[in-house]
Amino acid sequence: MPSLDIVIVNWNAGSLLRQCLESVFTSDLGNVELQRMVVVDNASTDGSMDDLPFASPPFIPIRLPENLGFGSACNIGAAESTADYILFLNPDTVLGRDSLRGALMFMEAADNRKIAASSIRLNDTAGVTQRCCARFPTVGRMLAQSVGLDRLVPRLFPPHFMTEWDHQDTRPVPQIMGAFLLIRRSIFTRLGGFDEQFFVYYEDVDLCRRIALDGGICVHNAAVSATHVGCGSTDRIKARRQFYNARGRIQYAWKYFGWPGSLALALDGLLIAPLARSLKGVLNASLTAITDAVQGSLMLWADLPNILSRGNRPISSLEARSGSEARPISILALTRYPRQGASSRTRFLNYLPALKAEGIDVTVSPFFDETYLPALYGDRKVDSGAILKCYRRRLKVLHDAQNFDLIWVEKEILPWIPSIVEQFAMRGMPFILDFDDAWFLRYATHPSPLVRALLGKKFEHLIQQARGVIVGNSVLTDWARKAHAREIVQLPTPVDLDRDHPDRSAEHGGPIRIGWIGTPSTAEQYLRPLLPTLEELISEGIASFTVIGASHADFTRIGATTLPWREADEVEQLYNFDVGIMPLTDDPWTRGKCAFKLIQYMAVGLPVVASPVGMNNTVVQHGINGFLANSREEWREAILTLARTPALRSRMGSEGRNLVAREYCVSAVYPRLSAALRKAAGAPPLAAPSSQNKA
């Protein structure tokens, strides 16, 4: 005996819902077992769910507090199903006495076991068969439909619906209508249910296309019929209906045809289709038609940022239900630099071994190649042709990225490009952003008014479309919260302690060795103002000074040693310091810094001296693992104190090393990163270790 669950999604269907339910309960089920009839109400306001005269079970009403859309509501209704089949039935459909039994017996026939889903013949209230089976849309077919070419020259531009066929015979078809969609539950579950990015319209097209890609068949069963009123819930809101239809077309194009097709359909929905409807309204002297066309276009424009991101889509109810066990995750990391770039190395690449061990496979694609940073820091001209290649490479990576579960983005996707273009290039793929600096100031405070106008709010727009944002400190957390980020995870920039094994028990003779590590640009901005103090200490024989990663004539002039930065030499070079310094100016940019220099110094057991700016105030515990110094006098006194007291240096170095081991190393930070990536990718969290495995 085949078992059946029926799912009906209601939204202000009025008396049609009651008629639909009555037709179900008066149907001749034969040997079909009706297990559940679930009505999911999308926050109706017309009282259509009130006083329904049906007992439960099998009648199960589910009232949602807000309208989640048709696909989401269908998935919620089907989430607890254990039946052989699920029937998705519109509330404006009235079944005939034999509709259910005939539809189920057709699917149960031995010759039809390969059929994944079927529909039946739907008649309007006058008894005329609706020609509702359809071809899969193409971009050209959807554009032709907007201007009426499918009606004017159907031979050249075949319409979406198969109107040339009378639907009086049973046959396989590309797409069946969602008003009566009977599907094998095992297939529906395997496919993950309806794609919830489609609020209404095109969710049934997408499901049928995924059935076809899965090797399944959809069939129109003409031997069984029902009555379908059509537009039972949306006929009263034509402008919004036009908006959702255009929205679904853009999202469908993203999913199957890439950003060129979605861009074409966005322009169509914003301009071409509304203009065509308005002209038709003028010819028919219909002010309402003109108003609806304009309102629909304005709604599409207002919602375009949301449409441009599938990150908007919640995890489907069925995906959440079937994903109770951890599964492999595939992530594309769009870093800004290759390994030589500190932010990319420390916030992305150093995590890869641990992520791989946990079943998270990360493919890394930097925007800039390995020639960029040496040219930038070497004061050489950056080749414009090489930069253009970086843009082409990034666009190609995005074009081929549809099979990843998540895109993990360092700062931005395309530098100096507006967010709306980036979102088109992303083709609706889910993404999460990572910031270790106050990067939002880059464009918002730019001296050019044009840059501020085009890009000033770029990062706020990206954050609102992302599934989440990872930030390095509390300043960035506050900014992300004000930008209305959906999910904020604060993670410091960590070091890999496996590389660092300090043994500072033996003291050397001579001046205290002060060290600084960084880039030429940060040396120019933050280190040069401290040079007079350092020059005094060097000339007095109290200190020596070494700079890693930057060189300047002024450093040589005061007697400093300059060393090139190489990752392989970094730890050994830091071991040769007695104290690490991090001077900063106090401004909005520096308050967004993540104090990574201090973490590097502490990782090798160094005491530190730093400006009391931003996260430095969190990392440095004044008098315990280092000193905070503001004025020139405070800097001099802090260094003199450390120079005179080797035991204090040793004690502060140990305190700093312990702090890094607790809070700022890869092994301490990694579990929170893994959880954030899993959540953004729609995967369940890792199960906690069982008590038997806890040592």
TrEMBL record:
Pfam families in the record: Glyco_trans_1_4 (PF13692), Glycos_transf_2 (PF00535)
InterPro entries: Glyco_trans_2-like (IPR001173), Nucleotide-diphossugar_trans (IPR029044)
Domain (Glycosyltransferase 2-like): residue spans on this chain: 6-187
SUPFAM superfamilies hit by this protein: Nucleotide-diphospho-sugar transferases, UDP-Glycosyltransferase/glycogen phosphorylase
Protein name, entry field: Glycosyltransferase 2-like domain-containing protein
Source organism (scientific name): Telmatospirillum siberiense
